[in-house]
Each structure stands twice: as C-alpha cells, then as structure tokens.
Amino acid sequence: MAAAEPARPRRASSRAAGEGGRQDGQPARRAAPRRRSGAPDAGAAMRAAAGQLAELLGRRPDSVSALKPTEDGWEAQVEVVELERIPDTTSVMASYRVALDEEGGLISYERTRRYTRGMIDRPS
Predict the structure, then answer these.
(1) Cα–Cα nearest to 13, from 1, 3, 23, 4
(2) Nearest-angstrom CA–CA distance, 85 and 63
(3) What is the largest CA-CA distance in the chain?
(4) Pairing mode, if any, of strands 92-101 and 106-116?
(5) How distant, in Å, are the alpha carbons of 19, 48, 50 from that of 57?
(6) Do you find a cis peptide bond into 87, omega within 30 degrees of 0?
(7) pLDDT score of 23 more than 90
(8) How much is the pLDDT for 75?
C-alpha cells in the first residue's frame, strides 16, 4: 500500500479580492437590473407583451420566443400567426419586437421578420 502524499498548500488566487473576486475564491456575480417594487416580473412582462400586442393586431400570439430586461423595462420577441394555411406548416408567421415600460405598458412594437411555420433557421 502506497503512503499518502502530504497535503500541499494552495496557491493564492491570481485575482485579489479587491479586483472583482470574492474572499471565498468564487467569481463576483453581476447584479441583475434593479426593478421597482411595483414592476412586473418576467412572467407578468411576458403575458403583458403578448396580451397588448394581441389587442393591437387583432390576432392571438402563438408564443413569446425571447424576453429580456432593459434599462427602461422589458423587450420581448413575440411570434404571431399572420395567415393560417393548410397544411399548418405553410402558415405565415411573423416575429414582433415589443418594448414594455417598467410597469409593463407597451411602448412600441415592430415586425422584424415573416416566415412560414415549417421554415427551419439555418446558419448564415
């Protein structure tokens, strides 16, 4: 049976605690944008984006494909069926960029893309 090696002292981290690292050796985490207490959370923002866009377009959104916080509120990508066809894979879809303020109110929307439902994203 081999003898156990003696424990070696650990090397000090190359980053000092004052240079972005923490005392426990874990990297510092970036703080999420602060929200006011009455501001919507991600789920509420997603529902607000889909609901308000539906009111303006007169069409029910199919899905919310992206949602991210911004300095002014939220930005979402909402997918909408613009023209239903048979078979379903040939239906015309549209992707809308929707901007919401801190309270979840719609500030702006813009159609960014049209495509058929069956179309697969391909690398450029």
Answers:
(1) 23
(2) 18
(3) 78
(4) antiparallel
(5) 50, 14, 11
(6) yes
(7) no
(8) 97
Question: What are φ and ψ of residue 13, in 5° steps?
Answer: -65, 145
Q: SS3 for the chain, per residue?
A: CCCCCCCCCCCCCCCCHHHCECCCCCECCCCCCCCCCCCCCHHHHHHHHHHHHHHHHCCCEEEEEEEEECCCEEEEEEEEEEECCCCHHHCEEEEEEEEEECCCCEEEEEEEEEEECCCCCCCC
Angstrom distance (rounded) from CA 45 to CA 48? 5
Q: Which of the four pLDDT bands, split at 50, 70 and 90, describes residue 120?
A: confident
62, two tokens: 């199919």
Question: Token match 């979840």: residue?
Answer: 104
**Structure tokens belonging to residue 18:** 């004052």
| Per-residue model confidence (pLDDT) at position 25 | 56
